[in-house]
Design brief:
There is one protein chain. This protein is α/β, with parallel strands linked by helices. The chain has helices at about 1-30, 35-65, 95-110, 125-145, 160-175, 190-205, 220-245, 260-265, 285-295, 320-335, 345-375, 400-430, 435-470, 490-515, 520-530, 530-540, 550-555, 555-570, 580-585, and strands spanning about 80-90, 115-120, 150-155, 180, 190, 205-210, 215, 255-260, 300-305, 310. The longest helix has about 35 residues, at about 435-470. This is Glucans biosynthesis glucosyltransferase H.
């Protein structure tokens, strides 16, 4: 069944790509088929195939459900020992460690006697932050009466970054634990969810990794709330389609997932790649690789999208998103060195190819746009009298309908899946958690408009990242900014002046060489020219009820618990003067509860 589903999905995506290719060839034949027309048709084939692949995942997610996990007694006594790993890197310890306190308090509230420890793994490079980590950790242990259950260590050499940090712990201390729950510094999980994950992995001896679908929370800015809405409203459907296609070789996103410690230790050692960064050095997008290595050794890797109570935070503005995406870009392109590793499952290799394609796809769109603008330079003048001595001119038939149909089809691949998700949410009652059917539909339209405006800017950043990697620039591992992300227009211009220049130059060249394309390229060029204003505007706090998500209507218990602990600790451990902006990690209050 799984093979048939994969074949169907690939076939539908290929059919859409081939259809786009044929339509464009027919359009190009109107004035005589040129070599450049074939090149453009091939570029549109690849680009459409990629868009169709995403649409097919949504279609599968809408029309099917993954096999439910084995039934587990929610009151069964947990036998194994679990450690929760919290890697930190120059984070505000008050915010991060209060998350640990909140999760421990949430576990305690379940009255379950499962043995769950927490280990804070610090890769902090700044001594002043490290000193505060020790202070706040001592307070954490005292408040939670956690001596012997909570551990802290700071590495002197942060080789391998987060993956190396976790590997170091597994190597030194992993044998003491049956299961390891891996979090990010901004992760939060309900105690009941943690216990459910432990019971599920304990009940299935072949399960090596269990991934949850984290919900993005505490978004304040227009950009963050759009991402938050998309992650809560659309992503579960796409994730369900992904889970159906991946089967037993599911995804690992690096956090909010539990692993069988022995399986991870035996399977997931990551040697440094030969050569220098960006393609050599430590593996940056280690999570995909670790999932593939577990599958190679015969372990099940599963995404259980039914698990609730798993949360994370996201960037507050486009610039911070682009910085994080730059690291992901380098990590995914690095997988070109790993995709041919011996023994990997075929689907694992396909997942690597998807990750690479996710970042190089904009290059195909860019190539198509450049080729289309340049095409008039290579088109011979029309011959209205192809037959000698024939007295009447010949006017070739217009194929404009083919171009319009192609454009409608491409936009349909982007828009229709989200509209179908909104329609289904209204019919099955899911929309109630998003303010009701009408508000959810209005939010869907707003998100589509917002993503259409910001897509050219985000694609410009992504394209630059690809070129930086291809030309040998190492992006490193920058610290995440998790607090107030408001940017001025000047900040936006400093970050995106080159996008403004490219957008203006592109429209000018189009008007000069191919004025007929100008109207079609305005939705790309104008947002690029307006990039500084879009960046600034989208970084400002949102006061709208649009993009409402369930966590804003009814704040989850773990978020309320963390807010209370953080507020108390923030007063007890005020940041040194001038350092609060440097940490930028205070928890966000949702607009509905500010």
């Amino acid at each position: 069944m799984l093979i048939g589903l994969r074949a169907l999905a690939l076939g539908l995506a290929a059919l859409a790509g081939i259809g786009a290719f044929v339509l464009f060839i027919q359009f190009g034949q109107a004035d005589g088929l040129q070599t450049l027309d074939v090149v453009r048709a091939l570029l549109i084939l690849i680009s459409t195939l990629w868009l169709a692949w995403g649409a097919v995942q949504a279609l599968i997610g809408l029309t099917s459900r993954a096999e439910p996990p084995p039934r587990v007694d929610p009151h069964a006594r947990i036998q194994g020992r679990t450690v929760v790993l919290v890697p930190v890197y120059n984070e505000d310890p008050v915010s991060t460690f209060s998350r640990v306190a909140a999760m421990d308090a949430s576990l305690a509230a379940t009255d379950d006697d499962a043995e769950v420890h927490f280990a804070i793994l610090s890769d902090t490079r700044k001594d002043d932050i490290a000193h505060r980590e020790l202070q706040v950790f001592a307070h954490l242990v005292e408040e939670r009466d956690a001596l012997g259950r909570f551990f802290y260590r700071r590495r002197t050499n942060n080789v391998g970054k987060k993956a190396g940090n976790i590997e170091d712990f597994i190597t030194r201390s992993g044998a003491a634990y049956d299961f390891t729950l891996i979090l990010d510094a901004d992760s939060l999980m309900e105690g009941e969810t943690i216990l459910q994950m432990i019971r599920r992995i304990e009940a299935e001896p072949r399960l090596g990794l269990l991934q949850t679908l984290p919900k993005v929370v505490r978004g304040r800015s227009r950009f963050a709330r759009a991402m938050q809405f998309s992650a809560s409203f659309f992503s579960p459907v796409f994730a369900r389609g992904l889970a159906m296609l991946q089967g037993k070789t599911g995804p690992f996103w690096g956090h909010n997932a539990i692993v069988r410690t022995r399986a991870f230790a035996e399977s997931c050692g990551l040697p440094a790649l030969r050569g220098q960064p960006p393609f050599g050095g430590h593996v940056m997008s280690h999570d995909y690789v670790e999932a593939a290595l577990l599958a190679r050794n015969g372990w099940l890797v599963r995404l259980d999208d039914d698990l609730e109570g798993s949360f994370e935070e996201g960037p507050e503005n486009i610039v911070d998103h682009a910085k994080r995406d730059r690291r992901w870009c380098q990590g995914n392109l690095q997988h070109a060195r790993i995709i041919g590793a011996p023994g990997l499952r075929g689907w694992s290799r396909f997942v690597f190819a998807q990750g690479i394609m996710a970042y190089i796809a904009p290059l195909f769109w860019l190539g198509f746009l450049v080729a289309s603008i340049a095409a008039p330079l290579f088109v011979p003048p029309p011959d209205y009298f192809p037959e000698p001595y024939w007295p009447f001119p010949y006017f070739p038939p217009s194929e404009a309908s083919k171009a319009i149909g192609l454009a409608i089809g491409i936009f349909g691949l982007l828009l229709v899946p989200k509209l179908l998700i909104a329609a289904r949410a209204a019919m099955n009652g899911t929309a109630r958690g998003f303010g009701g059917g009408n508000l959810a539909f209005a939010s869907t339209l707003s998100e589509l408009l917002f993503s259409s405006l910001t897509a050219p800017v985000l694609l410009a950043f992504a394209t630059r990242s690809v070129f930086q990697v291809l030309f040998g620039a190492d992006g490193g591992w920058p610290t995440n900014n998790r607090g107030d992300g408001r940017l001025s227009v000047a900040d936006g211009f400093n970050a995106a002046w080159w996008i403004v220049a490219i957008g203006a130059a592109g429209l000018a060249v189009t008007w000069w060489l191919a004025p007929g394309l100008l109207f079609w390229l305005l939705p790309v060029g104008l947002p690029m020219i307006a990039a500084p204003w879009l960046i600034s505007w989208s970084s400002q706090p949102s006061a709208s009820q649009l993009m409402l998500v369930p966590s804003e209507i009814d704040t989850p218990r773990i978020l309320r618990l963390h807010d209370a602990i953080f507020t108390r600790w923030e007063n007890a451990f005020p940041a040194p003067e001038g350092d609060r902006a440097g940490f930028a990690d205070a928890p966000h209050r949702s607009p509905a509860h500010a």
